[in-house]
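FAQ

Q: What does a record look like?
A: Structure on top, sequence underneath. For example:
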């Protein structure tokens, strides 16, 4: 470019700036943008770590009983893999990648390096979340409050609520005899479950606790127990099935007003 062309170019730029009244952006806007990008990136990374820990929790927390629950390999695959949390993890990973690329020096990092960083950070932070026991707390909280938990977040609850196939899960609400208990399943239906095995399961089936059972349906809402297992993921949701507790100072026949929460019934 000659000096004349260079001068003409500069004049054109100055004319355009004056004509369109273009002014430089203040420094605080760039700082705010960087802070926002980094902040959203960190939040996405933390959410990815939580999703990673919940993937581990779902895989290790309950699957020991799937093979003994009469599932075929395809069913086992569907209920072992926590698709919801894997999708969440993928979404958060993409968000972290996007935010890193849009930082001031993001263009310097190759896609491979960013992906390796996201995987490493998610695994490391996910292990920290698991060690702290936050994965269990998060799942319990979601189970108690999240809508469609049993259909979207943890559909394996539906798998275990299948007495016709010899599987039953729910909250044990009372013991009516040395070998009989009342249980409410995820659909809100009441079952009489009966211990007949020679093995003593009394330390595994406890009132006010969730449980998974393998056995046989013998009649309408009667289930004979062959095996008792604890519940990992989904305990919070099963607690929704508990009937309301009547306060000790509440006289239902006295006409007084009692603050009793209704039973929340979810499922099909």
């Amino acid at each position: 470019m000659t000096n004349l062309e260079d001068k003409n170019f500069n004049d054109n730029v100055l004319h355009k700036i004056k004509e369109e009244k273009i002014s430089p952006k203040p420094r605080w806007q760039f700082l705010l943008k960087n802070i926002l990008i980094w902040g959203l990136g960190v939040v996405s990374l933390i959410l990815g770590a939580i999703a990673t820990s919940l993937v581990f929790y779902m895989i290790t927390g309950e699957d020991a009983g799937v093979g003994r629950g009469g599932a075929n390999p395809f069913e086992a695959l569907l209920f072992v893999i926590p698709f919801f949390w894997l999708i969440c993890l993928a979404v958060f990973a993409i968000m972290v990648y996007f935010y890193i690329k849009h930082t001031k020096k993001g263009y310097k990092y190759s896609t491979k390096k960013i992906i390796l960083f996201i995987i490493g950070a998610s695994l490391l932070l996910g292990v920290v979340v698991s060690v702290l026991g936050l994965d269990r707390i998060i799942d319990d909280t979601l189970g108690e409050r999240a809508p469609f938990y049993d259909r979207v977040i943890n559909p394996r609850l539906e798998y275990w609520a299948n007495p016709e196939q010899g599987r039953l899960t729910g909250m044990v609400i009372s013991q009516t005899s040395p070998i009989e208990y009342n249980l409410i399943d995820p659909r809100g239906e009441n079952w009489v479950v009966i211990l007949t095995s020679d093995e003593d399961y009394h330390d595994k089936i406890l009132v006010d606790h969730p449980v998974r059972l393998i056995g046989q349906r013998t009649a309408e809402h009667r289930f004979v127990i062959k095996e008792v297992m604890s519940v990992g993921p989904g305990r919070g949701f099963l607690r929704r099935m508990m009937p309301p507790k009547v306060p000790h100072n509440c006289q239902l026949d006295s006409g007084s007003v009692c603050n009793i929460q209704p039973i929340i019934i979810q499922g099909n």
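Q: Is there anything notable about this one?
A: The domain at 161-239 is CATH 2.40.50.140 (OB fold (Dihydrolipoamide Acetyltransferase, E2P)).
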